[in-house]
Specification:
Strand order of the largest sheet: 1-3-4-2-5-6-7
Order of helices and strands: EEHEEHEHEHEH
Largest sheet: 7 strands, mixed
Number of domains: 1
Helix content: 25-40%
Structural class: alpha/beta
Strand content: 15-25%
CATH topology: Rossmann fold
Bound molecules: guanosine-5'-diphosphate
Number of helices: 5
Distance between the termini: 14 Å
Length: 195
Amino acid sequence: MKRFHAKFLRSATSEAQFPPAGAPEIAFLGRSNVGKSSLINALLGSRDARVSSTPGRTRAINFFALTDTPERQQPQIIFADLPGYGYAKLSKSVSAEWPKFIEPYLRDRPTLALCICLVDSTIAPKASDAQLFDFLEAAERSYRIVGTKADRLSGNGRSQALKALRAAYGEHVLLVSAKTGAGMKELWAEITSVG
Ligand code: GDP
């Protein structure tokens, strides 16, 4: 598995603060508590680029630059950690409580190459997730659905969860665990295939 060096680029709370569009961007989306910070930290494996789910940072898009060597200045891939959603009731937009710059980011960002959409594999599929995937579909974005916390399921539970997620969202669902590393190699392969 190819290792990248990751460094925190910036937090953005408006379109004006997005970093210049350059390297292909991978966005991470999911309901609050889905395990997004844990997954990104496991992928980055870097002490220089810790993601935290503490308030403040969670209302922003946090950008991380990935390079194959620490010396390289230009990022080869950018990770965009999007705010968690799902506390408030959903409205016509993806989520009423989501900051206003999120939808324009998902719709218009020219370098957004892939959305990694996280769902908790230990709970039943949710309408609010399906609503987000419909939005991404309408925006003609590439997205992959990734079920988190797979280590909490037994072998049988895992196949049942996969079946339920595939029935709800389509065949292309991958189960991962930030804790055991299960599925991470496949996830990296998806990520680097766009980079
Ligand atoms: P976020 O709000 O989406 O950033 O979620 P966090 O990464 O903060 O995780 C939410 C909770 O789920 C925490 O208690 C984590 O320890 C737990 N968690 C996250 N990933 C995993 C995983 O792969 N396996 C298990 N067992 N727990 C996880």
